[in-house]
Amino acid sequence: MPRSMARDVLGKNTQGTAGPARYSLAMAPSKLRYRISHLWFCIAFPALLFVVCNAINIGKLAKWFRDADGLDLSALIAYLTAALCLSIFAFALLAHRYMTKAVAIFLVITCAAATYFISKYGVAIDSSMVRNTFNTDATEVGQLLSSQMIPYVLFLIVLPVLGVLAADIVYKPAARHLRDSLKVIALSLCIALASLYVEYNAIFRAGNVSNKYIVYTLIPINVISGSVNAASKSLRPYFRRQQEDIEFSASVAAPKDLVVVLAVGESSRRKNFSLYGYERRDTNPVLRGIENLHVLDAIATRASTLYALPMILEKSGIKLTTVTSRAGVPTSCIVNYTLYDNCAAVGEIKVGNCGHGGKCYDEDVVPLLAQNLDSYSSGQRFIVLHLGGGSHGPAYADRHPPEFQQFKPMCMDADVANRCSLEELYNSYDNTILYVDHVLGQVIHTLDTSQVPYVLIYVSDHGESLMENGMMFHGVPPGVALPAEQR
Known about the structure:
With 487 residues, the chain is of the alpha/beta class. It has helices at residues 3-13, 20-26, 38-56, 58-62, 73-94, 100-121, 127-134, 138-144, 150-166, 174-198, 200-209, 213-216, 221-239, 305-313, 320-326, 365-374, 416-419, 422-450; strands at 34-37, 66-67, 70-71, 167-170, 258-265, 314-315, 318-319, 331-336, 349-350, 380-387, 454-460, 465-466, 472-473. The strands form five sheets. It has a five-stranded parallel beta sheet, sandwiched between helices. A hairpin with a 2-residue loop joins β6 (314-315) and β7. The chain is elongated, with a radius of gyration of 28 Å. The model is unreliable at 1-29 and 240-244 (pLDDT under 50).
């Protein structure tokens, strides 16, 4: 056969693929490989991902579609149909010729993780949760690992990824590829809108009753929208024109000698402070014995550290530390972990060289506070202390030295929702409050012995759920009402 004729035959058999090399790859003897058109991959992959991941948590979703007559099945089906079509719509938009498998693998991994945490802890996934993921350090990641993840990793990540890699996706010529993609996009969007329209009132009611929980737990809609929103927020500063600093003047109206210390905690909820009437045990033996202590009635409005800190340290787009430093007040931020950009004007002094076998705890801010006070002679001074260990889960025992494991038995497993009793969970959490009490006592003692005139304010960024109403930890998206324990 002439070479030109052979080339022509191979070109016809590949159905628009990339020539002989692609053809030989598709025909390679392998039981794992399979051929599928890009059109059908864009439909089948998001459909399978949607069905498998949401089937695991369907009970958490369906409960919001109940009324006096029981489960509103037609509304639930309409909502799931709309969500499925929107998943296909979103994937078809993102899965371009050279990005199809990469996008698919990204969704497999992220959706598997979202499925696990929704199933185990009832968390809601939005852009703030995605951003928190990228701001999580190696210690917190290690605390979240559990043997309960193994089935999820195997069946929701490993096997699907192998299935995606084994696919020999066939692409049509550019014009036909674009036409087919537009058909899928248009048809899926029309079906989604029609489904929402038919049961609009019931779906709208479920959204309101659940405080948008039906959106933040629906995979992969929550992962895609959260990732896109997080990416846009991160990239936005690079694409907008450089803005001038907000113009404002600041000065000290009534100069006097005073040191103001603002201590910001982490996930320590009021409910478990005996100062606020916690009757199960005395978690504040140190603070209870201190005179001139005023108990504040503080309410959190954000349950994510990333959004909660600005509620404490920012107003009208201006950071508190920027105001004090511009007013000529010496300002410092001493942190265990980080306050993100809330101390950008003065920088952060981080704890280090901690004498706990390489680990740092909140008490390690106290020596740095003492050093700061040594240089004080007169005037005003503002110090922010970040007690970033606080009561952050899931490994509550890692937030304090071993000697503060007073209340036992404790929960030592990251899978607190399934491996620990409520007694173990409360014991572990109460130990963190006991340690907060100890650290604040040390801060007050340091201020007292320095003999500086001072005011100390302590406030946690938000609280923590301990399986109340099936919720664990914290992290409710902005706009959603906080559970009482996180508020």
